[in-house]
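Lecture 7 notes: from sequence to structure.

We start with a single chain of 245 residues. Read the sequence below before looking at the structure.
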Amino acid sequence: MFNLFKQKPATDCLAGLRCDMHSHLIPGIDDGSRDMDMSLRLITGLRDLGYRKLITTPHSNGDYFPNTPEIIRSGLAAVQAAVKERQIDIEIDAAAEYLLDERFSNTLDSGQPLLTFRRNWVLVEFSFVVPAMNAMETLFSLQMKGYQPVLAHPERYLYFGAERGWYDRLKEAGCLFQLNLLSLKGHYGKLAHQLAGYLIKKRYVDLLGTDLHHENHLRLLAGSPVIHDTVAKLLDSGMIRNVEL
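Now the structure, written as tokens:
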């Protein structure tokens, strides 16, 4: 196996987080890992960055990746077996990254259980193109069902840049925010980088996630002192809750 960190070792640079709660490591079910070999390389790389637990979160949406809990659990079992066979010292579990679409609303209304982490936390995402219709109502319904909504990468919804009051309303409604680590170095563009800084200044960031899809993400995480230094400062601030997972 080639060494992803040959040029710039970064062993344990994210160890303070202990747990990553946003990634795409189950092979072949979304736009993340293509096959089991790739999954094992990504998992080994995250272990080398210092993580001791991974909660991988395949996409679940009606248009492209209609993953059910059964599909995700089956994929997780295969990954866990492969990790055990390779003797990779890391704990791995799974939840889902739910798009707030019609399929999600129907699932919620039907009472079907969602895949959660930390007992009742649910990772949700909005469309990147247009503001989510009835977002506040859906999040309220989620809470009424006993779930804690966690909004994935709020800094990447660029339409919030023109109306940042959305962040205040979501926070007031009890939503937790998960920031992507790669936003800290501008990987998703200038505006996402600016919004990440805004959310940090507002002390609105609760969780940090890799949103790992492929090996280039891993290289960027390993080779960025900006990310490593910012993570250390955020952990010192007491805002970040990854260690609770």
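Helices lie at 36-48, 69-86, 102-110, 135-144, 165-172, 190-201, 215-222, 225-237. Keep this in mind for problem set 3.
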